[in-house]
User: Fold this.
Amino acid sequence: QVQLVESGGGSVQAGGSLRLSCAASGRTFSSRVVGWFRQAPGKEREFVAAIGWTSGTTNYVDSVKGRFTISRDNAKNTVYLQMNSLRPEDTAVYYCNVAPGSVWSIRLMRPSVDFGSWGQGTQVTVSS
Assistant:
């Protein structure tokens, strides 16, 4: 089983940037899809972006397209989320997780039901 650790969150002003990391230990990400999700206070956890570990194919929710970039470092077994032009509505706890399938099927999965365990996440706070 793969263990995931998220890091890189912080507090920034609107327009700022952060880079989140999702590091895997135990098993690797191989042949799976890695997704970033976020949960704002009082809201459900939602899909943000995904990348195919082998293919490098990516998928983003419309609200972050052109601002966020998901990438991977195979040697470090780490997935990144570069977040630019941050907005107050991006404020949330960000989580990563893995799943079989494609970068399209992972965004259809229900975060509260279809995944196993989640990590502690990393807090991102964007002030106006």
The beta strands are 2-7, 10-13, 18-26, 33-39, 46-52, 58-60, 68-73, 78-83, 92-99, 122-127. The radius of gyration is 13 Å. The chain is about 0% helix and 50% strand. The first strand starts at residue 2 and ends at 7.
